[in-house]
């Protein structure tokens, strides 16, 4: 009789490698390992071979980089979604896609369960499982680190588990940071970052970005063309999303841009400190805001700022496959219909500076905005506007003077005595 199948989110690292024999021993499942490439730069052939040698019945590798960029990164970019002022949602944007692909394989393989190796302290367990619940509430979810049958509590215990069974142990690395990498960013946690008093050891830590102080003094200009809020060209060359991200990461990395050190609020309730390298993403966010600034009217831009904040929270929490997320993104997509044109920035030692922008849909009108009086604007028109705009203030002040209370009364304590010499 054929065994039931479980889909395992497999990275090739120690945790998920241990999970393969653990699942077979504790659940008697056939393990289908699924590797999802969102730009980690891993040796997928070697990882697939490791999964099969460790006991997986099958291992599939999915190149999801294009899908990740076009359907998850670009949506966050169009929304200007930033979590807690600084985090550009590198890990957050990838996890829902990974969860969705796991469900797709579960359906194809007629599996009864999905397993992941996220710990019980982090955000990823939430993001994976919300995606699974959204598409397959009938599937069993096995979170190894939360499972009563899991009795390994350290890296050493996991290594012994594999060695006791004569299985290959993934390459042992020196003690280092806990990292997550994809085409959008690289995150670092652990070591000196676990004490907020410590400055990050950037020279030891950074892999994709130079320390800003060591970046070229002359800097570098970058020009990006946009179509409906999506970048389509870099420095005059049309590129697909993957090509553009790869090139922008190189450019941003060598100029030291996109570094963030933040102590953020995890959705599970604790604070966690991390350093993020997002060189290409930081350039895109800055340049995209420049386009929004010239293409969106005041009311739309200000309301979009509120929507951006809520969307960032939804993405961070893994609530991407929800009605609220779809509804807010429909608003964002409407705002981006005229966000077409080009922006130019200069990168200098970790900083990004605006260096020009243009759009045929630009709402900036030089004839109106110029200090030189033009035909389209009459300074005297402002008098009536200010009269009406300030009417509530005037009415309140008149009431205060009539009743002898409030800030508008004579000798008000809100008004200070100023020197006359």
First-to-last CA distance? 100 Å
In total, how many beta strands? 14
Radius of gyration: 27 Å
- Percent strand equals 15-25%
Alpha-beta content class: alpha/beta
Low-confidence stretches: none
Q: Can you count the helices?
A: 14
Indicate the overall shape: elongated
Sheet having the most strands: 5 strands, parallel
Strand order of the largest sheet: 3-2-1-4-5
- Overall mean pLDDT stands at 96
Helical fraction equals: 40-55%
Element string (H = helix, E = strand): EHEHEHHEHEHEEHEEEHEEHHHEEHHH
Q: What would you say about this model in short?
A:
With 421 residues, the protein is of the alpha/beta class. The chain has helices at 14-27, 44-54, 65-79, 90-109, 124-135, 155-164, 202-205, 241-254, 279-295, 298-317, 323-335, 366-369, 381-389, 391-403; strands at residues 5-9, 30-37, 58-63, 113-116, 140-143, 178-181, 186-189, 220-227, 230-234, 237-238, 259-265, 271-277, 341-348, 351-358.
Question: Which structural traits does this protein have?
Answer:
elongated, 14 helices, 421 residues, alpha/beta, five-stranded parallel beta sheet, five-stranded antiparallel beta sheet, 19% strand
């Amino acid at each position: 009789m054929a065994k039931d199948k479980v889909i395992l989110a497999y990275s090739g690292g120690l945790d998920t490698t241990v999970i393969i024999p653990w699942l077979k021993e504790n659940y008697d499942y056939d393990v289908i390992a699924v590797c999802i490439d969102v730009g980690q730069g891993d040796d997928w052939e070697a990882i697939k071979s490791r999964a099969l040698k460790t006991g997986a019945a099958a291992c599939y590798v999915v190149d999801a980089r294009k899908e990740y960029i076009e359907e998850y990164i670009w949506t966050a970019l169009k929304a200007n979604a930033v979590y807690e002022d600084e985090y550009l949602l590198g890990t957050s944007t990838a996890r829902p896609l990974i969860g969705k692909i796991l469900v797709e394989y579960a359906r194809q393989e007629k599996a009864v369960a999905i397993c992941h190796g996220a710990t019980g302290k982090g955000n990823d367990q939430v993001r994976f499982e919300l995606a699974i619940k959204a598409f397959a509430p009938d599937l069993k979810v096995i979170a190894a680190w939360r499972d009563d049958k899991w009795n390994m509590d350290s890296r050493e215990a996991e290594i012994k588990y594999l060695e006791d069974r004569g299985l290959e142990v993934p390459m042992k690395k020196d003690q280092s940071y806990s990292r997550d990498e994809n085409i959008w960013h690289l995150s670092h946690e652990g070591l000196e970052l676990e004490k907020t008093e410590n400055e990050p050891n950037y020279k030891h830590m950074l892999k994709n970005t130079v320390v800003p102080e060591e970046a070229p003094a002359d800097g570098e200009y970058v020009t990006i063309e946009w179509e409906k809020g999506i970048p389509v060209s870099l420095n005059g060359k049309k590129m697909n999303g993957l090509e553009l991200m790869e090139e922008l990461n190189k450019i941003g990395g060598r100029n030291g841009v996109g570094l963030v050190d933040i102590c953020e609020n995890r959705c599970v309730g604790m604070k966690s400190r991390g350093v993020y390298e997002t060189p290409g993403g930081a350039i895109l966010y800055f340049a995209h805001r420049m386009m929004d600034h010239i293409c969106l009217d005041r009311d739309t831009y200000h309301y979009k700022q509120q929507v951006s904040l809520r969307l960032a929270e939804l993405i961070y929490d893994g609530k991407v496959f929800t009605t609220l997320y779809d509804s807010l993104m429909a608003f964002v997509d409407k705002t981006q219909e005229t966000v077409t044109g080009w922006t130019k920035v200069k990168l200098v030692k970790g900083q990004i500076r605006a260096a020009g922008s243009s759009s045929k849909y630009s709402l900036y009108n030089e004839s109106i905005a110029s200090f030189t009086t033009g035909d389209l604007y009459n300074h005297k028109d402002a008098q009536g506007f200010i009269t009406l705009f300030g009417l509530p203030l005037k009415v309140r002040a008149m009431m205060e003077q009539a009743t002898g209370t409030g800030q508008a009364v004579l000798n008000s304590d809100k008004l200070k005595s100023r020197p006359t010499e």
